[in-house]
Amino acid sequence: MDIKYTSRKRGDGLGGQLEGLASLLIFADRFDLSVLCDLRTFPFFKGVHNETGFPSSEYYSDEEASRLLEFHPRVIYNSKELDSIRQHQNKPWLRVLEWGDWWPLQREIINWLSGGRAGPVKYGYPNEGLINVWKYLLERRESAVEGAVPNYSELPIKVRDRAQFELLLPRVKNSTVVHARLGNGELEVPANEFNVSASRARMTIAENLFLEEMRKHDSDFFVCSDDVRFVNKCQELFGDRVFHSDRCWLPYGCGPGHNATTHSYPVLTPINTNPWTLICDALLDMELMCEGKRIICNKSQFNYFARQRINSESTTILL
C-alpha cells in the first residue's frame, strides 16, 4: 500500500467544504499526504459526470482557479492532475484515502490519527474493506507524539487579490462581525430538494434577534448575509456604523447563489451571474469575519472559521 493522497466526499456548501479541507490538511501534514480538492464538485460549479466518469462543469477552468484563488501548498486542485490520479490504471484505491459522508465520525478519527488524545473507540472497528488502510495508519501513528486536538482556524483557500481585504481589515479588527444566514428564498425550495431540518430551522430565525443583539454594542458592525434586505435594514437602524464588502447580492428568491443548479428556486439566478464572482466574494467575507473582535451569528458552516478564531466569550450564536 502506497497512500499518497487523501480526500473527502461530501456535497456541502462552501463553509462545509472548507471545514473538511482544513481538517484533512492537519491529517495530511502528519502523514505527509497531498489533499485532493476538486472544485468542479463545489456547488458553485457543480456539473454532471461526463463520458470519462469525471465531473464536468462549463463554468470551471483551472486557469481561473490559479488566477483568482490561493491554495494551501498541499492541495491539488488542477482538474487534469486530479483526473490522472483517479484513472483506473493508476489504482487510486491503493493511493487515495477517501473519507465518506459520515463526517462527525470521520473527523474524530482524523483528530485522533493526527495526534489528538481522544480515540474513536466507541465506534468500534472499520468495516473489512478498510482493515488494511486502518492498520497502515495505526502503524504510522505509533511514532506520533500525543498532542492537543488540531486547530482548523486557517482557511485553506483564499482570494489571491488582497486589495479589498487589506482595505477593510483595520476597521474589521475593531468591529463586531454579524453573519446572518437567512437563505434569500431557500426556505421556499420544495422540501424534497432541501430537507435538512437543522438548516431550515436556523433560517427561520427572526431578523430582530440579530438587531436586538447589535443594540447591546457600541462598535461598528461588519455585516455579512446572503440576503441584502437584512444588510439594508442594519444600515437603516445603525447608519454608517454598518459596513460590508463590495460584493454581489442576488435578487431575493434566488437563494444564496452557490447552488442554483441543484434547487428549484422561485426566482432564477440572473443569467450573467459569474460563479467565480460568487465564490471570491464568499471567500473574502469568510476571511474578513475571522478578524472581528466579536461575532453575532446563527450557526452556519460559513462562519465556522470565524467561530474558531474569535474568543468564545465574544461569540453570540442565536440559533
Helical element count?
Answer: 12
Q: Specify the structural class.
A: alpha/beta
Secondary structure: helix percent: 25-40%
> Strand-residue fraction?
5-15%
CATH architecture grouping of the largest domain: 3-Layer(aba) Sandwich
Question: Which fold name corresponds to the CATH topology of the largest domain?
Answer: Rossmann fold
Strand order of the largest sheet: 9-8-7-10-11
Overall pLDDT metric: 80
Categorize the overall geometry.
Answer: globular
Number of strands: 11
SSE series: EHEHEEHHEHHEHEHHEHEHEHE
- CATH domain class of the largest domain: Alpha Beta
| CA(first)-CA(last) distance | 45 Å
Q: What descriptive keywords fit this protein?
A:
five-stranded parallel β-sheet, globular, 11 strands, 319 residues, 12 helices, Rossmann fold, alpha/beta
Lay out the secondary structure:
Elements: E1 5-8, H1 14-31, E2 34-36, H2 62-68, E3 69-71, E4 75-76, H3 79-85, H4 92-95, E5 96-99, H5 103-113, H6 131-141, E6 157-159, H7 163-173, E7 175-180, H8 197-202, H9 207-214, E8 220-225, H10 228-238, E9 242-243, H11 275-289, E10 294-297, H12 304-309, E11 315-317
Parallel strand pairs: 1-2, 1-5, 2-4, 7-8, 7-10, 8-9, 10-11
Antiparallel strand pairs: 3-6
